[in-house]
Design a protein that fits this description.
The protein is an alpha+beta fold. It folds into two domains: 63-132, Ubiquitin-like (UB roll) (Roll); 138-287, Roll (PH-domain like), CATH 2.30.29.30. The chain contains seven helices and eleven strands. The chain has helices spanning 2-39, 85-96, 117-120, 135-141, 146-158, 166-172, 273-280; strands at residues 63-70, 73-80, 104-106, 127-131, 196-200, 206-212, 217-221, 226-230, 236-242, 245-254, 262-269. It has a four-stranded mixed beta sheet with strand order 2-1-4-3, with helices on one face. It has a four-stranded antiparallel beta sheet with strand order 5-6-7-8, with no helix packed on it. Strand 1 and strand 2 (73-80) form a beta hairpin. InterPro entries: UBFD1, UBFD1_C, Ubiquitin-like_dom, Ubiquitin-like_domsf. It comes from Ignelater luminosus (Cucubano). One of its GO terms (molecular function) is cadherin binding. This is Ubiquitin-like domain-containing protein.
């Protein structure tokens, strides 16, 4: 009987020990699983986010390509989008030879110098219309021939008065035009508020001078066209009284480097000669 009880106790003790081991193993396994859960988070707990593209606005220094239409020709021109119209005109002056002050640019209307290409909505491929004249176009109006140049050089060498030179006699011999403005000898007056009219050019056609002081321009108008000359493009102004009609002058506006590039105007009222020279050559503020 004592043996049976001893065996029973041993079995009970062994069972208790095994249960303890199993229990410890369970705790151990559970701890490993918890550690695994903490060290390796599943995708369902922390969702992945896809990278998105961020659109950046166009840079103000972006260069755009436009087409400039001038004299029925198209020119590809590149310029920064933040360029002003004034800056763009200077660029066109270098490319096409049209002085910026003689340019008019149109894109859905007349463009102003203080506007920028981007603010107007001009984008790649836009067509901009250019209206303007080169200085060569202006000089062509005076139609200077090789014979005229030779006569001018000859007259210069002998210091012959302008009104006696053959090149001018063709116009002066016809006498003053009927609608010429009154001339006054030995008097100096400021420019009138109206254009100077009734005068003639070298071809004998009527010419009118309009002084746009606010724009620093002189407008030469004939029946056919009007040329808008920047004051700075006129290199010099020469004049002499007409013999027998000293109340009027022969006047030459020098548009180029030589005497052959002068635009001649006849029957200019004498009282305005000094004012014209001051206005064209840079002293116009006193008349404004």
């Amino acid at each position: 009987m004592n043996f049976v009880m001893l065996c029973s106790s041993s079995i009970l003790l062994l069972g208790t020990e095994n249960d303890s081991k199993l229990s410890n193993m369970g705790v151990e396994n559970h701890t490993k699983e918890d550690r695994a859960d903490c060290s390796e988070p599943s995708e369902c707990k922390i969702p992945k986010t896809e990278p998105t593209e961020v659109e950046t606005p166009a840079s103000s220094n972006e260069v755009i390509e436009v087409k400039v239409v001038y004299n029925k020709n198209k020119y590809d021109v590149s310029a920064p989008a933040n360029s002003t119209i004034a800056e763009f005109k200077k660029q066109l002056q270098g490319l096409l030879g049209v002085p910026d002050s003689m340019q008019k640019l149109m894109y859905k209307g007349l463009l102003q110098d203080n506007q920028s290409l981007s603010s107007i909505g001009i984008t790649k491929g836009a067509k901009i219309m250019l209206v303007g004249s080169t200085l060569n176009d202006v000089l062509a109006v005076s139609s200077v021939t090789k014979q005229d140049v030779a006569e001018l050089e000859k007259a210069t060498n002998v210091k012959e008065p302008l009104c006696r030179q053959k090149i001018h006699r063709k116009v002066l011999d016809k006498g003053p035009p009927e609608d010429v403005m009154p001339g006054i000898k030995d008097l100096k007056e400021s420019l009138p508020p109206i254009p100077l009219s009734g005068m003639l050019n070298k071809q004998g056609g009527k010419v009118r001078l309009t002084f746009k002081l606010e724009a620093d321009q002189l407008w030469l108008s004939t029946k056919e066209r009007t040329e808008k000359l920047p004051m700075g493009s006129i290199k010099n102004v020469v004049s002499e009284p007409i013999e027998g009609h000293e109340e009027y002058h022969v006047m030459g506006l020098q548009l180029g480097p030589t005497e052959a590039s002068r635009y001649w105007v006849y029957w200019v009222p004498a009282q305005y000669i000094d004012a014209i020279k001051d206005v064209v050559l840079g002293k116009w503020q006193q008349y404004f």
